[in-house]
Task: structure prediction
Amino acid sequence: MTPATRAEHCVIACAEAWRDAGEVLASPMGLIPSVGARLARLTFSPDLLLTDGEALLVRPDGTVEGWLPYRAHLALVAGGRRHVMMGASQIDRFGNQNISCIGDWERPARQLLGVRGAPVNTLNNPTSYWVPRHSRRVFVEKVDLVCGVGYDRADGARYHRVVRVVSDLGVFDFATPDHTMRAVSLHPGVTPRQVREATSFDLAVPDGVPRTRPPTAEELRLIREVIDPGNTRAGEVAG
Result:
């Protein structure tokens, strides 16, 4: 079997966000997070709940295993029993996320998705982020508009927890004394200098930061033969 690609390391990093999660609803937004959630369900998180994004609970192969009406979905969201992995057009050192606009809110240079459900997601259930292109335009000193709430704005929020940020360069969390972002692992071939240069703020990269763990042979088989045999993951991550 050929060695794992960068995209497959990203799949593993996303899957690890749901390790031993128990019976919580995984809400992956994006191709690689979706492959990661399905891989987690098939391996180390068998109680994970997967949704079709509308009203059904599904198995990793897409077959239906339950009904999830909107009112039940909202109960999971508001009670900390959902772990969403969203995208981020901008994210800062405290985990504040922007998916709404670039520039001043009243006259933005770019109009994006809008705030949508990001405040509710981040204040009421664990949240992670997936960024397929790690750059200074995304990892910014200060977001132009706060959509997802970071640690410096979440005082008193019972279920607020930004679990991890996964990018095409590495894995990051906020397990520092002041809840600022730090590197947990870097993907193979990525250097500390490279990730610092691609980040607008002073990112903590500990000495001896490890490599993101590679997929096992069985995980590679599941990714390549069962979950994503068309290799659509390769189109989301270069290299």
Q: What stands out?
A: The two ends are 18 Å apart (CA to CA).
